[in-house]
Write a structure and sequence with these properties.
The complex is a heterodimer of chains A (about 650) and B (about 180). Chain A has about 650 residues and is mainly alpha-helical. Among the domains of chain A are: about 210 residues, no CATH class; about 200 residues, no CATH class. Chain A is globular and about 100 Å long. Chain B has about 180 residues and is an alpha/beta fold. Chain B has one domain: Rossmann fold, CATH 3.40.50.12280. In chain B, strands 2-1-3-5-7 form a five-stranded parallel β-sheet, with helices on both faces. In chain B, strand 1, helix 3 and strand 2 form a beta-alpha-beta unit. In chain B, about 35% of the residues are buried. Classes of the chains: A mainly alpha (about 650), B alpha/beta (about 180). At the A-B interface, loops of A face helix 4 of B.
Chain lengths: ~650, ~180
């Protein structure tokens, strides 16, 4: 068994490459299908390899190439296997989804290059996880970044190009920071693997550790969308095709978290209280800022992107709390919150990928990403909207779905440690608890907005537009259905997954989730909810005289009900916008244009409201203006005067000699 | 200053409400009302009989009488009858006026929107027969031309007491 496990991993990586090559065969649909089949096979093998590691975590696996100087090249331990499983699962389902989905867009996208780039993207992520040293890690990271940059521009619109360039700048600043941190730690031996790096980090000069920690935080934080390095995320994620958005939001962000955890847990020595509070601060800020914009935004996919920012914030909050606990010697709190963070990461990968796949079908049906133009799809696609409803409830972290139990463990363990006689710890826990609770509430608001405005009521699009909308094909429904089923099953199986994350061989019960004195049985909760629904249904059948039922349209007081009477996304989020107007600084304007010069009352009015990003307006744009101004000043040297250039060369020579001698 | 005036009127001004004993008691109405209350209690298990009034194009004479049912003198809510704002809540429909062609749809829609079984009462001569507008080009005519009618209360307009007595009749001996 353990003999051929490494080959599974190797075959998975090779099939990803083959998928990319198959895609380049040509524009014919057969190459498109072949590419997706190979990608799905690669994912299945990857899942098998991860499961093999789950079953025998103490072995792990190493793929070594004997002739190479830096063997072993690839390895997969239990921690990596969790993330490798996620990458594989999401890429399988995205491949199944892409077969029919991209067929509808074959004129918009250049399919051969798109599919090849998706394969490269997945390959990059796989390499990052299985790499055992900084060198393959950075190569994988760059493949992932560059492939996703080209995927963002794949519809070749001016908007996408802008978003992609912003993304390219941010991601490369991040990659540069990570590379710098690795070089600082390695002290020259870049081909060292992570275990050697750990030893080097132990003997590093005192200033190296905080600096490299800061660089890692910026590098991985900018990739995962940590506020204030998040500005690219809400632009780039929605611009890509939906299955790529699912990969980017569901998995790429997790790769950044994987990288961050890999360096903080395995590479750097235990980080102190200050560093953990920095992580916690960034996490809380990100969660709050992300959820506010998720509640306010009127674009379907941007809402999902902001919701991802919020979830990343929560994960970083959990990581911050667990490191904080470790630095204060609270071993139990560290363990529970850390496993809650990893569990929530898994849950987020599942429900967010599912929601992005849903967004593809929704956007195709309405031909728009704006929530103001949606509505009424649930009558056309009932099964689809049931899937959407479950995923949205899961994203709002409501029981009995998987994500709830991650948050439950987090909150429960925060509550359980209040009684300690340490006012500083208490203050931190209380603050975290309060902000996370606020974030949780607003997340429900955001998800209600997303589901209700797009699915319920009447359609806001022109008459009968929905009658001819494209129904989701079986491949799309299959992928969405599997994601729905997985968040549903993640609930009852939460204790088992938690045991897997902690690496516990023997657990008291696979059905009981317990934190300190509190315990919860997710499966019982699920059964109880099912029983409630069933009881209500049976009671209704028994109590009401169904034979007297008569269907008639809703009572409209004589005025036909139409879509203009519906709640809009702008109106729905108005209370939130009002309460947080000091932070959000939304700009509203009503333009009044008189139609008749003689009568001022007859006028056409138009309402404009744009959400602004305070980080863009007060951070990035002034910084950009400063650098452009600086460059203009420097440009003055380029005067065209040859004597001045000769002087510059001479000055440079003198300076070099001065330094060298 | 304004507040002072207000307080003066409130506390020191003349008495404007009369004691009930100042009015002649309408024994006929009271007995009909208490009988009606007994019947409604027996029929609906203690809750009120809810009425939705629909104007099918009347002169508003009937509406004035129906409004009078709710005033302090008649006060039919004490007998277990109440007017509701939506046909979805109603047990009984009051339709007034000869149904005009423009309001035919309104009458039909309201009838359809009312949960069945529902008692339809044609209030006033217009609603019963078409009244002075019978056979006009602008009206459909009596309410029964549009929806099934269970009780007709003639009169142009019928007085509140007549309306109550007629209701008692139909509830006592359902057709």
């Amino acid at each position: 068994m353990s003999f051929f496990i490494p080959y599974l991993l190797f075959a998975s990586l090779s099939l990803t490459v083959i998928s990319g090559i198959a895609a380049l065969g040509g524009r014919a649909m057969i190459f498109h299908k072949l590419s997706q089949i190979f990608l799905a096979l690669s994912g299945l093998l990857g899942m098998a390899a991860s499961v093999a590691v789950f079953l025998s975590p103490e072995i792990g696996m190493r793929v070594s190439i004997a002739s190479a100087k830096f063997s072993p090249v690839f390895g997969l331990d239990l921690f990596g296997a969790v993330f490798f499983f996620l990458v594989s699962l999401v890429s399988v389902l995205c491949a199944v989804y892409a077969v029919p989905y991209l067929r509808s867009y074959r004129t918009t996208y250049h399919l051969p290059s798109l599919n090849a780039l998706v394969a490269a993207f997945v390959l990059g992520m796989q390499i990052v996880i299985v790499s055992t040293g900084p060198f393959p890690f950075m190569i994988g990271w760059e493949i992932m970044s560059l492939a996703s940059f080209f995927l963002v521009v794949s519809d070749r619109s001016a908007e996408s190009v802008r978003a992609a360039l912003l993304y390219l700048v941010m991601t490369h600043l991040g990659a540069a920071a990570i590379l710098a941190a690795f070089l600082l730690l390695a002290q020259g031996s870049f081909f060292a693997d992570f275990s050697l790096l750990t030893n080097l980090a132990g003997t590093a000069p005192a200033w190296v550790l905080p600096v490299s920690f800061g660089l890692f935080l910026f590098g991985f934080g900018s990739k995962s969308g940590l506020v204030p390095f998040h500005v690219w995320l809400p632009e780039a994620h929605p611009a890509a095709p939906s299955h790529v958005s699912a990969l980017m939001s569901g998995v790429m962000l997790k790769i950044a978290i994987y990288g961050f955890l890999r360096v903080t847990l395995f590479l750097l020595p235990p980080i102190g209280t200050t560093a953990s509070l920095v992580i916690l601060g960034f996490g809380l800020l990100t969660a709050l800022y992300g959820v506010l914009y998720a509640a306010l935004d009127r674009d379907f996919k941007r809402t999902l992107a902001f919701s991802s920012i919020e979830n990343i914030g929560l994960i970083f909050t959990m990581i911050g709390i667990s490191f904080f606990a470790a630095s204060r010697g609270l071993e139990v709190l560290f363990e529970v919150v850390f496993s809650a963070a990893v569990f929530f990461t898994i849950a987020h990968a599942l429900f967010k990928s599912g929601l992005f796949l849903i967004s593809g079908v929704v956007v195709r049906a309405f031909h728009s990403r704006s929530l103001e133009k949606m509505g009424g799809l649930s009558k056309r696609l009932p099964v689809f909207s049931a899937f959407f409803c479950i995923l949205a409830l899961a994203a709002a972290s409501l029981p009995p779905f998987g994500p709830f139990f991650g948050e439950w463990m987090f909150f429960q363990s925060l509550l359980g440690h209040f009684s300690l006689h340490d006012p500083f710890v208490n203050a931190i826990l209380l603050l975290t608890f309060a902000i996370s609770a606020l974030v949780g509430g607003l997340a429900i608001f955001a998800m209600v907005k997303l589901f209700a405005l797009s699915m319920l009521a009447e359609s806001r699009s022109p008459e009968n537009a929905l009658e001819h909308c494209e129904r989701p094909a079986w491949g799309e429904m299959f992928s969405i259905g599997v994601f729905t089923l997985s968040v549903l099953l993640l609930g009852p199986f939460a204790p088992a997954v938690m045991a897997l994350i902690r690496g516990e061989a023997a657990v008291p019960s696979l059905w009981l989730l317990s934190v300190g004195s509190a315990a919860i049985q997710p499966s019982v909760l699920l059964l109880f909810l099912f029983a409630c629904v069933l009881a209500v249904w049976i009671l209704r059948r028994l109590m009401s005289r169904v034979e007297h039922e008569r269907a008639y349209h809703r009572w409209d007081c004589g005025a036909p009900v139409n879509a203009s009477m519906e709640y809009t996304a702008t109106a729905f989020s108005a209370p939130i916008r009002f309460f947080f107007r000091l932070i959000l600084r939304t700009k509203k304007s009503v333009d009044v244009l008189p139609v008749l010069a003689t009568n001022p009352w007859i006028a056409s009015k138009s309402f404009n409201m744009n959400l602004r990003s305070i980080w863009m307006d007060f951070g990035y744009l002034p910084l950009g203006r400063f650098f452009i101004g600086l460059s203009l000043q420097v440009k003055k040297i380029q005067s065209g005067n040859i004597r001045f250039y000769l002087f510059l060369i001479f000055a440079a020579l003198i300076l070099t000699l001065r330094i060298a001698l | 200053m304004y507040i002072l005036n207000l307080f003066q009127t409130l506390f020191l001004g003349p008495k404007v409400t009369e004691h009930p004993s100042a009015f002649a008691s309408d024994d006929e109405l009271e007995t009909a009302g208490s009988e009606l209350k007994r019947i409604i209690d027996a029929l609906y298990g203690g809750r009120s009989l809810r009425i939705r009034a629909v104007d099918g194009g009347s002169t508003n004479a009937e509406e004035i009488e129906l409004t009078a049912l709710g005033n302090a003198y008649y006060d039919i809510e004490r007998f277990g009858l109440s007017f509701v704002a939506s046909p979805r809540h109603a047990d009984m429909l009051f339709v007034t006026g000869p149904v005009t062609r423009n309001l035919e749809t309104a009458v039909k829609t309201t009838y359809e929107a009312t949960p069945h079984p529902c008692i339809v009462v044609a209030v006033g001569d217009g609603a019963c027969t078409g009244g002075i507008w019978k056979d006009s080009y602008a009206v459909v005519g009596a309410v029964e031309n549009v929806i099934p009618v269970h009780l007709k209360i003639p009169g142009d307009p019928p007085s509140p007491a007549q309306i109550l007595k007629a209701l008692m009749g139909v509830l006592k001996h359902p057709a």
